[in-house]
Design brief:
alpha+beta; 26% helix
Length: 91
């Protein structure tokens, strides 16, 4: 199992980005969280199967219709067990 940590920059706050990431992550059976950062970016931590995490990464590179993604930083890690029970918005 793997963990993917993302930092997404651009016009990504106030455009339904977090909510859409939650929807996609749940469809992909991933667990973790998404949040708005004080610097205007969006952070994501997701855990699950690598191919499903790659799908989430691809989605985050595009984002919802109103967003403008300028940069996505990614970090991959191997994990032994899930750290979360669901995928949600973190405040």
């Amino acid at each position: 199992m793997k963990r993917l940590t993302l930092k997404i920059r651009g016009e990504v706050q106030g455009v339904y980005f977090r909510e859409s990431v939650v929807e996609i992550a749940k469809e992909l059976d991933l667990v973790g969280w998404v949040r708005n950062d004080k610097d205007g970016a969006v952070s994501v931590v997701a855990e699950g199967e690598e191919n499903k995490l790659t799908e989430l990464l691809n989605y985050c590179g595009e984002g919802p219709k109103l967003s403008v993604v300028e940069d996505v930083k990614e970090k991959w890690e191997f994990i032994n067990k899930k750290s979360f029970e669901e995928f949600k918005i973190k405040y």
